[in-house]
């Protein structure tokens, strides 16, 4: 995998996610563009590149967000490992695959975040609450946005030089 094009794309996606988050909102639900990119990388790259890319994307997300360093780095690594495992049983070129894998892995990320929030709120009283239903709605918006986004990323995937491992 070529890391310079990935780094440029990762920077663009994270900056669009956070700088234009208010513009991208659809009825108060912001799609998770970083999750969509992570799913694309998980469906096409070898395992070592997938885990490194997931950790890097998660770390970039953690630096900007308020959840603390390591939260999304671990969550996206989990999602990427599952995407890598699911690509063996799913047809990666189909639209229904892009839709369902985004919903499935988005729910996995929500469950991870809710579990993390529950554990932290048990030990730290000042932890802000996370609403479950807006997170689900954001995953559904992300899933419908993932179809054209992954289609576009598949058109430029030669740029990343994924190997067939």
Keywords:
165 residues; globular; 7 helices; mainly alpha
Walk me through this protein's architecture.
With 165 residues, the protein is mainly alpha-helical. It has helices at residues 3-19, 21-24, 33-44, 47-64, 71-86, 95-123, 132-155. Helix 1 packs parallel to helix 4. The longest helix is centred in the middle third of the chain and has 29 residues, at 95-123. The protein is globular. 32% of the residues are buried.
Briefly say what this structure is.
The protein has 165 residues and is mainly alpha-helical.
Counting DSSP E segments of at least 2 residues, the number of strands comes to 0
- Measured by DSSP, the beta-strand proportion falls in under 5%
Computed CA radius of gyration, to the nearest angstrom: 15 Å
For the biggest sheet, the summary is: none
Q: In which range does the helix fraction lie?
A: over 70%
**pLDDT averaged residue by residue:** 86
Q: How far from one another are the termini?
A: 11 Å
Oligomer: single chain
Indicate the structural class.
mainly alpha
Structural shape: globular
- Low-pLDDT segments: none
């Amino acid at each position: 995998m070529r890391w310079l094009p990935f780094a440029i794309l990762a920077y663009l996606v994270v900056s669009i996610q956070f700088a234009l988050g208010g513009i991208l909102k659809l009825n108060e639900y912001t799609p998770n563009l970083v999750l969509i990119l992570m799913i694309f990388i998980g469906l096409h790259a070898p395992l070592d590149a997938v885990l490194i890319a997931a950790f890097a994307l998660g770390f970039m997300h953690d630096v900007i967000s308020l959840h603390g360093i390591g939260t999304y780095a671990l969550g996206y690594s989990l999602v990427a490992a599952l995407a890598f495992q699911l690509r063996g049983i799913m047809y990666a070129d189909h639209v229904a695959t892009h839709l369902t894998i985004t919903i499935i892995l988005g729910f996995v990320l929500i469950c991870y975040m809710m579990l993390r929030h529950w554990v932290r709120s048990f030990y730290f009283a000042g932890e802000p609450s996370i609403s479950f239903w807006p997170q689900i709605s954001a995953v559904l918006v992300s899933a419908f946005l993932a179809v054209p986004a992954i289609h576009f990323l598949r058109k430029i995937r030669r740029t990343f030089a994924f190997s067939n491992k």
